[in-house]
Write a structure and sequence with these properties.
CATH superfamily of the largest domain: Response regulator
Helix content: 40-55%
Strand order of the largest sheet: 7-6-8-9-10-13-14
Strand content: 15-25%
Order of helices and strands: HEHEHEHEHEHEHEHEHEHHHEHHHEEEE
CATH topology of the largest domain: Rossmann fold
Number of strands: 14
CATH class of the largest domain: Alpha Beta
Radius of gyration: 24 Å
CATH architecture of the largest domain: 3-Layer(aba) Sandwich
Length: 373
């Protein structure tokens, strides 16, 4: 062997040693973390929910890690921005799996959740979905559902409107997304005599559907929508001069500042809604404590989704005390059985991997939501 060849062999051997050392060090570090993959909408449509949600998660992660983590392991949050789009969400999840390979995944919107659900089911990765639809855990044994449940929530709001004679003719204005399918199922348990008006998700011109509803004598329209849909509905009802009231699932998401800016206050009177979280998060016990502990947090992003993000990490933290991160069945089972943690959103545990909450009914009067039930 000549000197040149000997040097090449030595360099290659040295590189192997270095790579092996880095790989081994990485494996050791990975054993000391619980990796959380987040599919989040951080700009554009839905960012008003995604940004506060991630903010709450990160705050909880920071607090838990500052105390030493869980069983000596610290949380690592890997947030990957995406749009409310199935194909883009799939690409995001595949990227996460190929790179950081998180132990647990989180997703916010139904469109994204439905797209990534089969991928994570096959990968046997626990999925914490905040979609309003319970179809996600129904189709995946490794998925659990937090947030508002459109099936039972819509049923309860409809029962209130019917018992209190809030309508002569009830209608629904809904996209074809599964959370609305479940909502309609819940509504029909209470009121079979309804007028249905359907649109494609993402649509913002509802004038023809509203004109038909007005012609049909509908005086209350119930729906589950997202911010830009709610804004268009309120605005167009006002522009058309119709005396149609809205019944929102949920209250905290339909009456945004944008709605109040474009619709006269008197035309919002009598709007009904249902929710499980305080309408004004900043004035809640959680909000006050959160701002005290995180004084630099942008208060405009302190919403009920901040509380939900924070709560989900606290829940996961408690569950991981008894599970290894690479045991998905244990993780899911432990999450659904946690009872003794300080839930900041009033969680009452899980039934069939669907998180349970005490729901409240509100009516919008004199510029504020008033608790009715």
């Amino acid at each position: 062997m000549n000197k040149k060849t000997a040097w090449i062999v030595a360099i290659v051997f040295l590189l192997i040693i270095i790579v092996w050392g880095i790989s081994k060090d990485s494996q050791v570090k990975n054993k000391n973390v619980i990796k959380l993959g987040v599919v989040a909408t951080m700009s554009g449509a839905g960012a008003n929910l995604g940004v506060p949600w991630v903010g709450g998660m990160q705050a909880a992660v920071d607090e838990i890690n500052a105390k030493g983590g869980v069983n000596g392991k610290k949380f690592e949050l890997d947030v990957q921005p995406t749009a409310i789009d199935g194909a883009e969400s799939v690409n995001t999840v595949r990227y996460l799996l190929a790179n950081n390979n998180p132990d647990i995944f989180f997703v916010l919107f139904q469109v994204s959740a439905a797209a990534i659900n089969p991928i994570l089911k096959e990968a046997k990765k626990p999925l914490f979905s905040l979609s309003f639809s319970r179809s996600i855990p129904e189709k995946n044994p490794y998925a659990i559902k937090g947030n508002f449940d459109s099936l039972t929530g819509c049923e309860q709001l409809t029962q209130y409107t019917k018992d209190n004679k809030k309508y002569k003719q009830l209608g629904v204005l809904m996209s074809g997304e599964d959370y609305n399918v479940k909502c309609l199922e819940g509504i029909k348990k209470v009121e079979p005599n309804i007028k249905e008006y359907h649109y494609n998700f993402g649509q913002t011109d509802f004038r023809s559907l509203l004109a038909k509803a007005n012609h049909d004598g509908v005086d209350v329209l119930e729906q589950v929508a997202i911010d830009f849909e709610y804004l268009a509905m309120f605005k167009q009802i006002n522009e058309l001069g119709y005396k149609i009231k809205m019944a929102c699932n949920t209250a905290s998401e339909c009456m945004t500042g944008q709605v109040k800016d474009v619709v006269p206050a008197k035309n919002l009177e009598g709007t009904m809604g249902i929710d499980f979280t305080p309408i004004n998060t900043a004035e809640s016990d959680f909000g006050k404590t959160f701002l005290k502990n995180h004084p630099t947090y942008d208060v405009k992003n302190l919403t009920n989704y901040t509380a939900m993000g924070y709560d989900s990490i606290e829940l996961i933290s408690k569950a991981m005390e008894s599970c290894k991160a690479d045991d998905p069945a244990c993780v899911v089972d432990a999450i659904t059985k946690v009872k003794d943690y300080n839930s900041v959103i009033g969680s009452e545990g899980f039934i069939d991997r669907v998180q349970q909450f005490k729901m409240n009914i509100y009516e919008y009067n004199n510029g504020n939501w008033a608790l009715k039930q």
